[in-house]
């Protein structure tokens, strides 16, 4: 019989693989479709599928006290994906995902601001290393050049933290993962419609609602949709089975491993030495914050004893 912690690990790995697949398909779609259209498809299609299954199962509406959590998560996930897709259109797949993965650092900052939790020295070091990493990621050997896409990429990590905090709260309720994600995505999509329309009028966001008959694009859209659903259901199951968040935190960064495989096998992009250093600093900072480096050091010491 599979132990509970092993099942939680398996679900988390499945979740990070689906997350990397979502980023990959979104990258392809932003090259072939308007970013605003991809963003709306990214929310409405999974929401329609999940809520349809919920209605078939004759599930009722969420409880009144859960709507606040769902709305907070909807705001977080909508803003997160808006920033992520924008940076994805300007940066490489790996750069966008690394910035997106800074969520755990922002979780610590939110806990400090909202719940007065003291910041550990590891968190302060992680914040500093992330800042230095972003400077190196700019890739300019003559000095730091401000790039809006880097800041927006970091904002995707910040809003990802909001989404993850509310997801953890929802996973401990009586709602299933499909219910929580379905309603959150529907609310996020509805919130984005007027915002995208406003940005479209100002020329900041492109919206093209012309339906494409390209079989490849339709296939990529469907893969993205089911990868999104797989991410949400797997992660919700992992949170339910895990005793603590720290048990799963190190596994979040396997998303970077999967993404790196996609990047170097499917895209002809190369980084400068400065950018490699920047990526390494940001990844290392987040591993330091999650305690993964400490766990690895302890395991190495045990082997040498």
Describe this structure in words.
The structure is a single chain. The chain has one domain (about 5-305). The protein is globular and about 55 Å long. It has about 300 residues and is mainly α. The mean pLDDT is about 80. The longest helix is centred in the first third of the chain and has 27 residues, at about 5-30. The protein has twelve helices and no strands. InterPro entries: EamA_dom, EmrE-like.
What share of the residues lie within helices?
A: over 70%
Q: Give the total of beta strands.
A: 0
Question: What is the overall silhouette?
Answer: globular
* Mean pLDDT metric: 81
Q: Give the uncertain stretches in residue-range form.
A: none
**How many distinct domains?**
1
Tally of individual helices: 12
Strand content: under 5%
Q: Regarding quaternary structure, how should these chains be classified?
A: single chain
Distance between the termini: 32 Å
Largest β-sheet summary: none
Rg: 19 Å
Helix and strand pattern: HHHHHHHHHHHH
Overall structural class, as computed from helix and strand content, comes to mainly alpha
Domain EamA: 10-137, 150-285
Subcellular location: Membrane
Organism: Vibrio ishigakensis
Transmembrane segments: 39-57, 69-87, 93-110, 117-138, 150-168, 180-199, 211-229, 250-267, 273-293
């Amino acid at each position: 019989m599979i132990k509970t912690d092993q099942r939680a690990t398996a679900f988390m790995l499945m979740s990070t693989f689906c997350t990397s697949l979502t980023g990959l398909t979104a990258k392809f779609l932003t090259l072939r479709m308007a970013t605003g259209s991809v963003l709306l498809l990214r929310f409405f299609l999974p929401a329609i599928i999940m809520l349809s299954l919920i209605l078939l199962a004759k599930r009722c509406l969420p409880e009144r006290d859960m709507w606040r959590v769902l709305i907070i998560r909807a705001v977080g996930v909508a803003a997160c994906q808006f920033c992520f897709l924008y940076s994805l259109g300007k940066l490489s797949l790996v750069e966008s995902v690394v910035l997106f993965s800074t969520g755990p650092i922002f979780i610590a900052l939110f806990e400090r601001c909202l719940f007065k939790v003291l910041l550990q020295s590891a968190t302060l070091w992680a914040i500093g290393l992330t800042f230095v990493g972003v400077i190196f990621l700019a890739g300019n050997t003559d000095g730091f050049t401000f790039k809006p896409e880097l800041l927006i990429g970091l904002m995707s990590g910040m809003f990802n933290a909001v989404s993850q905090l509310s997801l953890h709260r929802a996973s401990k309720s009586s709602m299933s993962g499909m219910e929580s994600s379905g309603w959150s995505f529907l609310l996020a999509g509805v919130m984005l419609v007027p915002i995208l329309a406003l940005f479209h009028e100002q020329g900041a966001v492109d919206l093209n609602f012309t339906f494409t008959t390209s079989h490849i694009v339709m296939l990529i859209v469907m893969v993205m949709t089911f990868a999104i659903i797989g991410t949400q259901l797997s992660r919700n199951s992992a949170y339910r089975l895990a005793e603590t968040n720290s048990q799963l935190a190190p596994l979040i960064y396997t998303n970077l491993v999967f993404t790196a495989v996609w990047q170097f096998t499917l895209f002809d992009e190369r980084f400068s030495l400065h950018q490699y250093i920047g990526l390494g600093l940001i990844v290392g900072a987040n591993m330091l914050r999650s305690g993964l480096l400490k766990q690895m050091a302890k395991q190495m010491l045990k082997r040498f004893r």
